[in-house]
Amino acid sequence: MALALPSRAYDLQMLDRPTERARDHGWVYGLPPGIASEQWPLDPVTGYPLMHGFTLLLPDDYRVHGEDIVAVSFFATAPDHNDGGAPDDPEIREAVLARPAHPRLSRMTDILDYEYAALLLTAAEYEGAFATPPAPLALATAERPRWLDVGGASAFFESTPPFAQKMFAAPPRADLTETRAIALTPRASDPNAGKGPQDEYTRQSPPTGYQPYYYYVGGVPGRDNFRPHDWSKDHAHNHLGGTMRPCQAVPEMSPFYIEFEEYFGGYNFGGGNAQLDFRDMKFDWACG
Predict the structure, then answer these.
(1) Residue 1 pLDDT > 60
(2) DSSP state, 12?
(3) What is the spatial distance between Cα 51 and Cα 262, in angstroms, rounded to a whole number?
(4) Which parts of 127-255 fold into alpha helices (H)?
(5) Concatenated DSSP letters for 50-116?
(6) For 232-283, what is the HEC assignment?
(7) Residue-wise pLDDT tens digits, 243-263
(8) 3-class DSSP state of 153
């Protein structure tokens, strides 16, 4: 039976404390839960483990893969391996893709051919112990990513400019298990909940009724006429479903997506943000 479309969107907040699973909706940074080390996705570009960005516990109305799939873990190219375009070493790629994989692993690439991955997790996996990152391939020749030594939170804090460091109340511990909790709050008003984001001029699918967060006074495009809708003004930048605010064009996605900023896991998006469609396993980002 197909899942009904959600009637709500949710704001996601990264809290100033480590996660407490009994009360939170997941965590940013740290390690993924409940998987074997050999199931951790390696990067086909470098041969190192992909960096865990976040694990989100999905509310019931976003469990699009069935009630047994309760969470999604997102993995990304380490920011210190993401610079200008991915080199291609067929030997590393073939060795990585020949390894045993998690049964619900999806791999994605961006416009620069860097790698990302998502794991769909059962309740038992979500409640399981933190995973141990696997050793890199013996073929790996890239410099060791910083997060493997100090954890994703500390690595991002070290490398980011002062304005981004303000996302943290205090410097994170240099530890692989250091996390920041995720709080999930229903949006008071979002007319795009349950509607797949699309641009009315470039869409390739039938219209979903999605509307942008802004309008132009008098219907005349221009900087002086640009206005955000009142219903969008209190929307958080990190969110589950609903209205999208991409830094550039709107990627066409299902209603089951997450939009997030660079600090929500510690990435290199060129100052921009990203979107993960966990129903259709699409990923997109754009620089700011």
Answers:
(1) no
(2) E
(3) 13
(4) 147-150, 152-159, 162-165
(5) PEEEEEEEPPGGG-TT-TTEEEEEEEE--GGG-SSS----HHHHHHHHTS---TTEEEEE-TT--EE
(6) HCCCCCCEECCCCCCCCCCCCCCCCEEEEECCCCCCCCCCCEEEEECCCCEE
(7) 999 999 999 999 999 999 999
(8) helix
